[in-house]
Specification:
Elements lengths: L2 E5 L2 E3 L5 E8 L8 E6 L5 E7 L6 E3 L7 E6 L4 E6 L8 E7 L13 E5 L2
Parallel strand pairs: 2-10
Antiparallel strand pairs: 1-3, 3-8, 4-5, 4-9, 5-6, 7-8, 9-10
Length: 118
Amino acid sequence: QVQLVESGGGMVQPGGSLRLSCVGSGFTFSSYDMSWVRQAPGKGPEWVSSINTGGRGTYYADSVKGRFTISRDNAKNTLYLQMNSLKPEDTALYSCARGWVGTLESNWGQGTQVTVSP
């Protein structure tokens, strides 16, 4: 069955960096656009970024543009999110999902927690 497993989260100070990973299995990873989404405590899900199957097309939410970089390694079935210049408002549970913004599938991974705090 389809599995998405995220890792790489943690606690970091404002201005710091983290790199998230998402390994996909049970499907042909290279055939799917992929996205990152996040959910902060007490708030609804927020789309963060999408990348197309080949990795050359990317799209970002305004809130992370210029600070986050999405990428993928289809040979390793892995999606990445490089997060720089982190802010407290980036604190959330980050999950990966199949699909492009607006057409995300509902079976996300379990997520990895990112906490940005002094």
